[in-house]
Specification:
single chain, mainly alpha, 2 strands
């Protein structure tokens, strides 16, 4: 399905906005969106292989929570945040696939601004809280994401390589 990247983009955006605005129901909504993604994906095996990167994402979020950069409203590490990682990782094969063609400095910049910015938006919308000032949040989260995004893109290339030819759509 050549247009699946667009479907994936829509599913990921629905997942993110569900987490931001509907935190009490977000786990159910995001779970449903993940199932829908799996039913429609033209390369489900490659998408599922990306779950090998899930512990890295969860570990980094756990460290950011321990540093006080953010935490969930209802619990320090809400289930919807872990589920958001699942659909984000699958997006690396689809709507975020273009990242694999970028150089390291660009990936670091995008990670620092967009990765950290996504969490800052979550704080601003009330889905997350922070124990640090805005400046300290960015001083913690931006460098972490400047390293994390290139690692995730590199990892996507490694774990999805066997099916790379099927991902061109």
């Amino acid at each position: 399905m050549k247009a699946f990247w667009l479907i994936n983009l829509g599913l990921f955006q629905l997942a993110w906005w569900s987490a931001a605005w509907l935190t009490n129901s977000a786990s159910y909504i995001i779970s449903g969106l993940i199932i829908l993604h799996c039913l429609l994906s033209p390369c489900l095996k490659a998408d599922l292989r990306l779950m090998a990167l899930l512990p890295l994402g969860l570990l980094v979020d756990g460290a950011l929570i321990a540093l006080g950069a953010f935490r969930g409203i209802e619990s320090a590490f809400p289930l919807w945040l872990a589920l958001l990682w699942v659909i984000f990782l699958m997006s690396l094969n689809h709507s975020l696939r273009l990242l694999s063609g970028l150089s390291l400095p660009w990936l670091m910049l995008i990670g620092a601004l967009c990765g950290a910015g996504s969490y800052w938006a979550g704080v601003s919308l009330g889905a997350l809280t922070t124990q640090v000032s805005g400046i300290n949040f960015w001083l913690i989260a931006a460098p972490v994401w400047a390293v994390l995004l290139p690692l995730l893109v590199w990892g996507q290339g490694k774990v999805s390589a066997p099916q790379a030819s099927k991902l061109t759509g």
